[in-house]
Design brief:
- This protein has about 425 residues and is of the alpha/beta class.
- The chain folds into two domains: about 240 residues, Aldehyde Dehydrogenase, Chain A, domain 1 (3-Layer(aba) Sandwich); about 140 residues, Aldehyde Dehydrogenase, Chain A, domain 2 (3-Layer(aba) Sandwich), CATH 3.40.309.
- It has 14 helices and 16 strands.
- The chain has a seven-stranded parallel sheet with strand order 10-9-11-8-7-12-13, with helices on both faces. A four-stranded parallel sheet has the order 5-4-3-6, with helices on both faces. Strands 1-2-16 form a three-stranded antiparallel sheet, with no helix packed on it.
- The N and C termini lie far apart (about 60 Å).
Length: about 425
């Protein structure tokens, strides 16, 4: 395979398709996604069979349990994929939306109108559901997309991609609107990062090494987060029962996702008054707790070292530390947060307000599990990723974040003096 030539062909087809998608009707796009969702459900046995092939491949590669959990599909997860597609399909079409408008003394009427970005490149690992989520979000926003799945999800992603294409073709949209790179060759990633003539933005979803490489090498703009190092600060005015429930869910619901809690910051006054029964809860659930010197007094807590602060485990491990107050917690976050998602547990509205104002993360939460850091839970149907940068998109990247805008200026023979 001549990678440069083949990727150029994919890029040109995507660019041509994006020109058609930009003027596709809202009804066409909605129907394409609804039909794709129906196809995925109708062909779920085929998708599960291909997923089994991927699981065999993953186990042969000796992937971690967390990675295999990300890869695994079952009927429940396929139903969630279908629900996500249907939710995206039902959203208002953003293209052509007038974001704002105003008149000028010169007689000009100016409108800022939402438009597609063009062609999106998505590079991802493990999760085959990203194929459906990314494809649907891009189509809804009028963009063509080139998908490069991880080698471990190659078969599952291929089966899902066929259903997306079937949905497109059923309403007369070009099949090249969603293209899946037909190779596991790792050199394709490097090629995509340089395709400035064809790709308008790259979205990486995967581990630290993949995202770090994309951010370091890309000549195309990138929406990305490097790591999901999510913290929960337990304030002196936290409710103990709420805190126990939130921490258990945030750590153990699914340890392998970027919204999994990785570090607890415990207010000293809270600890002195209430102890840390939630640490016992975690250890009883099989979580290894790596604590500072104070928390090592709890039987079963493993001593933390310097590398445990600011570490994304994606496993049944969490670090924990005593802090003096909310300001001490915020200072810790300034050093160690990846600016993905950070949470405060408190019943004090003033303390919560300070935390909201001073913590500079894409998602800041109050009394809620960090596992809610997800586009679907935000009402976006799904997400193409979580962006932690500050340009254009931040937080869950949904349909609206995959658009740009242009200015429509109307005059009446207007001339400038």
């Amino acid at each position: 395979m001549d990678i440069k030539l083949e990727m150029k062909k994919l890029g040109q087809r995507a660019k041509d398709a994006s020109a058609e998608l930009a003027s596709a009707s809202a009804n066409q796009k909605q129907k394409a996604l609804e039909n794709a969702a129906n196809c995925i459900w109708d062909k779920r046995k085929d998708i599960l069979s291909e997923n089994n092939n991927d699981l065999i491949f993953a186990k042969d590669k000796d992937l971690s349990d967390a990675m295999i959990d990300r890869l695994l599909l079952d009927e429940t997860r396929i139903q969630a994929m279908v629900d996500g597609l249907q939710s995206i399909a039902a959203q208002n079409d953003p293209i052509g939306e007038v974001i704002s408008k105003w008149d000028r003394p010169s007689g000009l009427n100016i409108q800022r109108v939402r438009t597609p970005l063009g062609v999106i490149g998505v590079i991802y690992e493990s999760r085959p559901n990203v194929t459906a989520d990314a494809g649907a979000l891009c189509i809804k926003a009028g963009n063509a997309v080139i998908l490069r799945c991880g080698s471990e999800s190659f078969h599952s992603s291929g089966a899902i991609h066929k259903c997306l294409v079937e949905g497109l073709v059923s309403v007369g949209l070009p099949s090249s609107s969603i293209q899946l790179v037909p190779s596991r060759d790792r050199a394709i990633v490097g090629e995509m990062l340089t395709m400035t003539d064809y790709i308008d933005v790259i979205v990486p979803r995967g581990g630290k090494s993949l995202v770090g490489r994309v951010q370091a090498e890309a000549r195309v703009p990138v929406f990305a987060h490097l790591e999901g190092i999510c913290h929960i600060y337990i304030d002196k005015d936290a409710d103990l029962n709420k805190t126990r429930a939130v921490i258990m869910n945030a750590k153990t619901r699914r340890t392998g996702i970027c919204g999994s809690a990785e570090c607890l910051l415990i207010d000293r006054d809270f600890f002195n008054k209430n102890g840390a029964v939630f640490i016992d809860d975690l250890m009883q659930a099989g979580v290894e707790v790596r604590g500072d010197k104070v928390l090592q007094s709890i039987n079963g807590v493993v001593p933390a070292n310097d590398d445990d602060w600011g570490k994304e485990y994606l496993d049944m491990i969490i670090s924990a530390k005593i802090v003096d107050d909310v300001d001490d917690a915020i200072n810790h976050l300034r050093i160690f947060s990846s600016k993905h998602t950070d949470c405060i547990m408190t019943e004090n509205s003033l303390t919560a307000s300070k935390f909201f104002q001073k913590v500079d993360s894409a998602i800041v939460m109050l009394n809620a599990s960090t596992q809610f850091a997800d586009g679907g839970e935000f009402g976006m149907g799904a997400e193409i990723g979580i962006a932690t940068g500050k340009m254009h998109a931040r937080g869950p990247v949904g349909v609206e974040q995959l658009t740009s805008f242009k200015y429509l200026v109307t005059g009446n023979g207007s001339v400038r003096s």
